[in-house]
What does this fold into?
Amino acid sequence: MTFTFRPVDPAADALLLHSWVSAARARFWGMVSATVQDVAEEYTRIADSGHHQAFLGLDGGVPAFLMERYRPEESPLASVYNVQPGDTGMHLLVAAPAGPSIPGYTTCVMQSVMAHLFEDPGTARIVVEPDARNHKIHLLNQRVGFRASCLVTLPAVEQAPGCTEAHQPETRKEALLSFCTRADFHATLTPILAANAAETEGEQR
It folds into this structure.
């Protein structure tokens, strides 16, 4: 597994992203009923925001996951907790495997995402706010060093124009606010992985 990242191209990647976000397994992403055009417009909006970026994660050059990075102070999180300097928000969606599932694959993806975000010396802490019902992601977050803080109420993911009330009736999202510091992330890694992560960060300064 060799993971790399590139910015999402809203027009070129819309069809691929639509196939991911509209799948039933991605229901917590909030775009199950979105059209390809809805997806293109949403990621154009993100690209133009100035405080929110989306990246495709590639495994050996093949798209495998979607990662979003954002500034919590410019998001609904600003109204539910005291944003600290160095806080960086993150969303992650891993695509369904094309072949047989590989044990531990999603954990490897998450470790790669965390290492990538911490390459920025200005990032002191990663913030996530997954749906409180998304127990699988809570376990994954704990595995890479996140500590749950509290339940918070946020606006539901904005309903895309093509969505209907039957598909997305919720107007609020109960989320588990969680944080991971650089030290907490490194503490979950093997000594070799932790040393590599620290060395990479040193090169970024």
Summary: Helices lie at 10-21, 36-49, 105-118, 135-143, 182-187, 191-204. The chain has six helices and seven strands. The first helix runs from residue 10 to 21.
